[in-house]
Amino acid sequence: MNVTACRMIKYKSFEINIRSNDGGYTLLEILIALAIATLVVSITYASFSAITSRTQATERSSRVHYAAGIIMDRLFLDLTCAYMRSSELEKDPDVFFQFQEGPSGTDSWQRFSFTSTAHLPLSPDDPGGDLGQISYELLKSDTEGEGYLLYRTDEPLFAETTTRKSAPLLLSQDLIKFSVEFFDRDENPFKAWDSTQGAQLGRLPTRITIAFAIKGEDGLEYPFMTGYTLPLGQ
Amino acid sequence: MWFKRLSKKEGFTLLEIMIAVAILSIALVAVLQNESRILTSTYESNTLTMVSFLALQKMSELESKLGKVDTEMEGAFGKEFPLFTWKAEVKDIPVPGIQAKLLRVSILWKEGEKDRAFTLDRCLSTI
């Protein structure tokens, strides 16, 4: 083992001598070239890895914003098409607007159902174009952590179909701190709304403010807030 | 020809290598620049998504207060959105026979040293 190593070293020095005599590179030149190459490569690598990590961060934040956009767009369509026929309330127990507040001390809610003209015909035997009862449900995520899942159910009111109710559609996950606030015509704020009884009987809120945050894969909380005016809100 | 020179074991000249490196680095810079442009526009689109939601919220709030608000207002969005402020103005629409007002809501924020704004206009009936 030692002998071969010795031979190799001898052979190498021999080689280097020969080459430098031949007008090739000297060891010093190669070392300098290597040093410069290392410098250039490490600078390039550093800038590339910085860009890669920023790209990943931007992609994660993009996914969160995309999810928020889906929720906001769906809620906007459903809520601005919220329907109320106050004069014939007794005949129409199916037409309502209800928001149940979550248990006190939590920043969530359980069920938000209302009648809307924004019914989506999701099953093939549903002709569409009818009033629908749209429900949003906020459920605790099965996996560990404090996230919530948002489901949307859509049931046509008058369609003569056998499979009336559509399966709950998962709109988003990893939701936290979801709050909804209602305002009447006089700008009084309400934490809950029920058009089937009390002062809010047969009435829709004038406007709604929705705020939530989504926990991204990077562990950051991305807050979102928006608000809509209900055209039929009185 | 270059391959003839190669076969004579002359190698590349320094000038040739420098030109090759220059071309390579121009290509690399172009790739990196493209990447950074994509990043900037994705970031921009994320911010605008969020800001347009804020503008909608403020718009719906001011809309229902329209009779009671001043012609110019401004404010903040609270601790969840410390970087953003809003400004709003109500203008008459100078068209005879139309009883309407223009409500303009702007969301303002800073991006580095740059002042950014997102503006939403809505025409509202005052009857």
Report on this structure:
The complex is a heterodimer of chains A (234) and B (127). By secondary structure, chain A is α+β, with helices and mostly antiparallel strands. Chain A is built from two helices and nine strands. In chain A, strands 1, 2, 3, 4, 5, 6, 7, 8 and 9 form a nine-stranded antiparallel β-sheet that branches. In chain A, a hairpin with a 7-residue loop joins strand 1 and strand 2. The longest helix of chain A has 54 residues. The radius of gyration of chain A is 33 Å and the shape is elongated. The model of chain A has no long low-confidence stretch (mean pLDDT 80). Chain B is elongated, with a radius of gyration of 28 Å. Chain B has two helices and four strands. The mean pLDDT of chain B is 85. Chain B is of the alpha+beta class and 127 residues long. The relative contact order of chain B is 0.12.
